[in-house]
Design brief:
By secondary structure, the chain is α/β, with parallel strands linked by helices. It has a single domain, classed as TIM Barrel (Alpha-Beta Barrel). The protein contains six helices and nine strands. Strands 3-1-2-4-5-6-7-8-9 form a nine-stranded mixed β-sheet.
């Protein structure tokens, strides 16, 4: 038991929900082929989340990180996207270092609700109102992706955009269940405020994981 606790605290064990190969479906990296690693556990709990089964980490087996890395290596994929749940609930340094050693790009999808760990080529920060990001992640984010559920969210999106570094890409994404209502509003908004870009959940339109 003690050994397992030590492995968990060092990032050598992770509660893995699923692993699969697909195309990135949203954000700046849309269309990029990647190995997806989804870890279980989330401390945010967005009502619109389409993977609510990821929230409870205890439902997902603890897997040796070394075994995950072996499968990634065997896949031949050059990019890994770590998502959740909330990946930063767990120390990411070990996983990132091992992937770096085999020349695999490391992308992170996070709400920023936990402290940043690991070394990343690309960080997509998707902040949530009910669990604000740790301040230090704003300066390191490569991409700010704000989910819009109503027009009133746009003011909050602008306040979040003021916190990121000048080179950070900023995107607005309609919440999927309200896409027909929200997308036209975002199109008009981005035309008037063209520092923003539109993110759509392309994977849902083309029916891939």
């Amino acid at each position: 038991m003690k050994q397992q606790e030590e492995q968990f605290s060092s990032g050598k064990l992770l509660p893995v929900m699923e692993e699969f190969i697909s195309l990135q479906g949203e954000g700046i990296k849309t269309g990029t082929a990647a190995y997806f690693l989804r870890v279980g556990g989330c401390d945010v709990g967005c009502y619109w989340c389409d993977v609510k089964e990821s929230w409870d980490a205890s439902l997902h087996p603890l897997v040796q990180t070394e075994d995950v890395i072996s499968r990634i290596k065997e896949s031949g994929m050059q990019t890994v996207l770590i998502t959740g749940g909330e990946p930063l609930l767990y120390p990411m340094d070990y996983l990132c270092q091992q992937l770096k050693d085999i020349n695999v790009n490391r992308f992170l999808e996070t709400s920023g609700s936990e402290k940043l760990s690991g070394e990343w080529e690309w960080i997509c920060l998707s902040p949530k109102k009910n669990a604000p990001p740790f301040p230090e992640i704003y300066s390191k984010a490569n991409e700010l992706k704000v989910i819009i559920t109503s027009p009133s969210d746009l003011a909050w999106a602008e306040s979040e955009a003021k916190k990121v570094n000048p080179n950070c890409e900023i995107l607005l994404q309609p919440e999927w269940s309200k896409r027909n209502e929200i997308t036209p509003i975002l199109v008009s908004y981005i035309i008037e405020n063209n520092q923003w870009k539109l993110s759509l959940q392309a994977h849902k339109y083309i029916n891939i994981p």
